[in-house]
Amino acid sequence: MGIQKKHGKGRLDKWYKLAKEKGYRARAAFKLIQLNKKYGFLEKSKVLLDLCAAPGSWCQVAAEAMPVSSLIVGVDLSPIKPIPRVITFQSDITTDKCRATIRSHFKTWKADTVLHDGAPNVGTAWVQDSFNQAELALQAMKLATEFLAEGGTFVTKVFRSKDYNSLLWVFNQLFTKVEATKPPSSRNVSAEIFVVCQGFKAPKRIDPKFLDPRSVFAELSDPTPNNEAKVFNPEIKKRKRDGYEDGNMTQYKEVPASEFIQTTDPIAILGSLNKLSFDQPPNGDVALAALDKLPETTQEIRDCCKDLRVLGRKEFRNLLKWRLKVREKFGFATKKSVKEAEEEVAEVESMDEELKIAERLQELTDKERLRKKRERRRENEKKQKEIIRMQLHMTAPTEIGLEQSGPNGDNSMFGLKAVDKSGAADKIAKGKMAILKASDSRQDHDSGLGSDGEEESDEEQDRLDRELDSMYEQYQDKKSSIDAKFRAKKARKEHEDGDWEGFTADKEGSDDDEELEEDSDDSSDDETPSKGPLLTDLQGVDNKAGGLSRRAAQFFDQDIFKDIGGIPEEKVESEDELEEGEEEISADLDALEIARQDAPGIEPDSDSDVPEAEEAESSDEEGFEVVKSKANPWDDEPRKDGRLDIDIITAEAMTLAQAIASGSKTTADLIDENFTKHSLKDRDGLPDWFLDDEGKHDKPHRPITAAGAAAIKEKLRALNARPIKKVREAKDRKKFHAAQRLEKLRKKSALLQDEEGMTEKEKASSIMKLMSKAAKKKPKQQVKVVVARGGNRGIAGRPRGVKGKYKIVDARLKKDVRGEKRAAKKRK
Ligand SMILES: C[S@@+](CC[C@H](N)C(=O)[O-])C[C@H]1O[C@@H](n2cnc3c(N)ncnc32)[C@H](O)[C@@H]1O
């Protein structure tokens, strides 16, 4: 590139301005920055070779991103102004001299990264160009194979031409991973694309054919000229920018601008030539001289004519319009002209008409594409934000989808921006968005417009969806590995979904087949996709599979459930006929069934899952109740029948149970009440995270009565009044020791009874003595108080010279306690 001039204001885009702002020598700097953002090769490199480096913006970026003591060598045909921490020299990368100079700089080192951004110097130093771009890239790769370390990265620019696939094939032979990408800063009109080859295989011997342009590009056919007319044809989606013609050693073609005016095929000229010249030939071209002086030949037109290769559609259109105007002026294309001229004019005008239609079409499709792109981006950004929030543990996955977006897509109140002051989210987002943007722009570039693009965007959308789903799964796995509560919740949900077997097998690995079969039988009974806690609770006490749980039995022992009448058998049977959308109703019927079975006069199931021993254990003569502690209501173990042993814990459930028990609700009422928007929800195809979230927040609100709330309150009060585990254990120990002492006494008195040398009176008095001794309380062991001082302070273990029980007290505390006692005495 070196000293290439920029033509037209369009070339001075935001990257150009940004490069100026940041002090980079060329806008190309951003291409490397964006490539590195995606692949991250610079930070990992200690030695880098930049082929075709002038003016040196890639070297600048490398020097910034690589570790401080790295070796960076840059080479170009053009001189490169010195760059701190970078060695540069001027040479042709296709020569042996260049190789030798690189070697002299590298000594024994090998490069971790080789960059190549070379383009033949068309137009300025074209006489030197003996290679086209693809050949230059192959040449760069040849150097890379010599200087790259094993596993190293090679980044090269290539143009989309026929050589492209051959090049890719060669790269694939030498690297483990080859990816072509177009960074956002690379102009869409440019046919350039960057190939990032990672993991250099460093083979001991490379077949010379791989590096010989004649064999690599052997199958090339004749180059097809770039027919710009195709660009305007809406049928053709892809821009034809075939790169430089193959076999054309000089690459460079220019004709006088007058020829463009006179030709009947202007498109062919625009598509195949490099320059329209206004330079006067020695013999003097009159038409050209006149053309040069025309007011229509503006500076912009002249600039456009200087380099046809870099022009976009707009510039081509301007040139064609200019040609028409000039032809009119010169009298080439008027209706009054000779027949051929008429034909030609007609042809040109029809082209103009066509142009207009094509342009209009183009505009419309462009608009539509932009709209779709914007939508896609907005969607992606939203998803990214959610993922970031999850990554930062700022949200539960169930909160996804609840975000309120402001008018500009920003989260107004609970936005990440407001919380993330360090900009961590931004960094993550940028990384991700860079990939997204890159893929977006790649799509645009590759697909042009229309259905191709849409298909690709659909695929992209699918990919993002899949990515989001798998991230959500990962999140759930992670959460369940650290959060017991979450695990239990998940298991409960799986149970509701009929996935209970899986959980049992997972959790209890050793479960035998029989048990698994049992479970699966049960779970097939209730294939309810999702139910609110109320329904689950009631189902938890479902008695269908055999007997009430102990808790359920205790619960329904309450006075309120006395005197419940039975429900006619037929009504309950109708449950079988309920369809899938009526699971909630069936759950309510379960509750009804429970209430019915618990009613007096109805025999409880004999094979209740509460073992007799456990029942007996729950109470003793002293009225001491052994209660299974349950710190967490969700930590329920599944019962043998696969259902959870869950108590009714919500006021809604209690209210419903009471209503059923009191007979104020009939089966018909329950069925009616459950036909809501919730019972007919279509969950097909919705992502898990969405369903989870919806299940949490979008559920029916059940009425609560004062009696129901009071019953739950009372229940909780009773629960809270139970002794804590420690106290229960201490009491148990006491009982156990007493039983042991009694047993001992019994044995001793039995021995005394059998004693032959003693009279009955003596025996009786001995037994009395034993009994009074056993009844005597042992004197409490004195606890020695040791003041933590000097040697005692902070030492773990028994203090020196202290026997028996001891207690370490703090000197300050001791004084304070004494002071308090004194003060209390005084007050008295
Ligand atoms: C696009 S510019 C490189 C820009 C550079 N990456 C930067 O960031 O500043 C392409 C360069 O390739 C160089 N080039 C073309 N053929 C070359 C060759 N055979 N040997 C060395 N350099 C060459 C040109 O001189 C030109 O400076």
UniProtKB/TrEMBL annotation:
Residues 338-384 form a coiled coil. GO terms for molecular function: rRNA (guanine) methyltransferase activity; rRNA (uridine-2'-O-)-methyltransferase activity. It is found in: Nucleus, Nucleolus. It holds the Pfam family Spb1_C. The keyword Transcription regulation does not apply. Residues 436-545, 564-641 are annotated as: Disordered. GO terms for cellular component: nucleolus; preribosome, large subunit precursor. Belongs to the class I-like SAM-binding methyltransferase superfamily. RNA methyltransferase RlmE family. SPB1 subfamily. S-adenosyl-L-methionine binds at G56, W58, D76, D92, D117. InterPro entries: RNA_methyltr_RlmE (IPR050082), RNA_MeTrfase_FtsJ_dom (IPR002877), rRNA-MeTfrase_E (IPR015507), rRNA_MeTfrase_SPB1-like_C (IPR012920), rRNA_MeTfrase_Spb1_DUF3381 (IPR024576), SAM-dependent_MTases_sf (IPR029063), SPB1-like (IPR028589). Residues 452-462, 509-527, 572-591, 604-624 have a biased composition (Acidic residues). It comes from Glarea lozoyensis (strain ATCC 74030 / MF5533). Residues 234-389 form the DUF3381 domain. GO terms for biological process: maturation of 5.8S rRNA from tricistronic rRNA transcript (SSU-rRNA, 5.8S rRNA, LSU-rRNA); maturation of LSU-rRNA from tricistronic rRNA transcript (SSU-rRNA, 5.8S rRNA, LSU-rRNA). Keywords: Coiled coil, Methyltransferase, Nucleus, Ribosome biogenesis, rRNA processing, S-adenosyl-L-methionine, Transferase. This is Putative AdoMet-dependent rRNA methyltransferase SPB1. Residues 463-486 have a biased composition (Basic and acidic residues). The keyword RNA-binding does not apply.
